[in-house]
Amino acid sequence: MAAITAAQYGTGALVTALMHPIGYAKVLIQAGYEPLPPKASVSLFGKESLVYPNVLQYMSHIKKVDGFWGLYRGVFPRVVSGTIGNIVQHNVGDKLKAWFPQAKASPEEEEGDELMSWLRSFCLETSQETVARCVGIIASHPLQVVTVRCMIQFVGRETEYEGLFSSLGAIYRNDGILGFFAGLVPRLVGEILTVWVTNFLAKLLNRYLVEDKDLRSYTAAACGLVVSHFTYPFTLVANVMAINSSGLKASSPPHMPRYESWVDCFSDLNAKGQLKRGSSLFWRYYQGPVIWRDGRMMAAPRYLN
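RE: above sequence
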């Protein structure tokens, strides 16, 4: 069993490392950094629009500036963070299941109060998963902060956050203990909402609509994809707050306002219509002011990075 678990963690770490360049580009986009200007295009509805280069073109730009291995800036702390989070979540989840086992309903309860039995089961399982995930996130979040700050240095060409331990030291010097948990609250809020809504929808669908037992195992994953679309703003705000006021160029005006709290950040992005920034990797529409020159639509220069 231990060997299987280790293999699973190893596979997860490998996949994370291989997909890192996409996540790297996405973090830069989430921070609002657009080094390549938008180009005129046509939307699916035939409307003339300005579209930013897709994530593959964005990655190509990173490679052009920093070379191939530059695409893997921040990969080590990201892999370590994910591995620690998964190990902690798995172990805490196992402990909770052992401490609070699912009680079997008596025949009288099954006949008389089936809905209440179903709700008790749902609440217990979801509460255990929520606690396990949150503990895993809290344990790994300092390395998540290191990861995001390592990557965002691309904007200002800084080198303060390079090695793992030196980066942890830099966070402590700049922000104190609380710096290790910058952006933690919106990340937890988004995770809790995702777990509860996903589990509720999955159990509801499996109970009343999905009869095939093989298909039921995929219901939660499908619901998770849908729900994560709606909870994405919390992921965005978490990453923005992880770098905000860190002293890095990308986290300071004029690139980014200084936010007093994550609620302030959420409100500002919402007012600007930017809460989905970075959620789409291919059709990324420019939403700022435009000018017309020689009959062509262009983005107003002062609004570009």
